[in-house]
Amino acid sequence: MVTSLSKIVEDVQTQSRIKRFLKRFNVARLLWESGFSKVKGYPIIDLVEFLLTLVFTHKNLYRLIHSDKNNCIYGKDSVYGVLNDPRFDWRKLQLKLGGRIIKDFLAPLTGDKRVSAIVIDDSTYARNRSKKVELLARLKDHVTGSYYRGFKKLTAGWTDGATFIPLAFSLQSSQKEANRLYEQGPDVPLNTPGHSRRREAVQPGTQMVLELLDQIVNQVSDFQYVLFDSWFSWPKVIRGIKDRGYDVICMLKDMPHLQYKYQDQTYRLSELYKTVAKNDPDNKSECIATVEVDYYGLPVRIVFVRNRNNSNKREWLALLSTNTDLPVQEIIRTYGLRWDIEVYFKVCKSYLRLAKEFQSRSYDAMFAHTSIVSMRYMMLAVENREQIDDRAHGGIFYQFCDEVADMDFAQAFFCLLDLLKQALRENLFLSESVASELISRFMDNLPKFLKVRLYLQTA
Hints:
CATH class of the domain at 85-386: Alpha Beta
Number of strands: 11
Strand content: 15-25%
Distance between the termini: 19 Å
Radius of gyration: 27 Å
């Protein structure tokens, strides 16, 4: 029997998976360690929780504030005060949270022999209808070949083949000033995270890859390989990662100015393939040929695999591994882990409203919201790994939406009970204990479907 209405409300609140996620990984302390402080009188953890929950209400901030229910206690100024503040280190928060999830939750679930890796890739962050957005640039989408307005979202994340955790990112503008459509907005104090973010936005992508990796290894060291596609397979990047003590497995692109030394002769990639490929028309295996070469002073193994996707292009693809002792099939299998980051990009754009939920002009706000989107994905990833089933991230997303809707119903129901209890005491002059006893009996006699919606009984 339920004996206290306040206890019921407290139990319902603690049932929220979002609250449980924040408490489980002690996000409040991580916020303090990342330089966050109270804004407009509200605890920062409450505002961050509100931002995490917003996407699951199917409303943007404006619609939620002006909705008929009007359950939002936060004003627009409070929310944008968090997003626009250049003192808040969102990357540090994301790194610390990701590191804690990997160490405390995923590491005990991952065997010692299981391969884990850092995956690096970029994706479009489009703002095609914007004009006066800070550091907005005209960039080329290398997938479609078209140009767009916006940024490149350079992302680095950890994966063990079962769970992907986004650890760090950078919203990259164009290095060329002529391609930047709008420059920096209001002055930002020096030596703040906001100033560093703007400096990084106009750096070369190859340099930013190494800087992100340096920041990641301070929080996460449980990985063996760094994976990326051909857009980052430059000698400077591969050499820089190898010098940091990690092996690289990446796709290669046939470019005339990149040379590979084999048997005291230099070849471009297509010439190397013609030299070492097995001329066997009956060969149906994935691996066509493998060879060890000198790549600008670095011994590497190159594996030529059959390209079964694009019959109109070349028949082969080339993978590079700085670990020359790694078997060919293991190189191919490990590089396959890179697909997890493509799933991450798809979920962020299709479900978590990346670049759509807030249309702010401030670079700090765009960076902050992207961090919030990454934290939402972490919640879905933890939920997916924790529950042993075949649900995709989209299915889990809609379950979070249902939970937020149920929480609204439960909170409204308990508010009515609270008013009923107050009326019983004021009009019938019942004592606190008698009124509570009547409410408890009423709750015990509710039908099962209502008890499930109120988190008083499992389905």
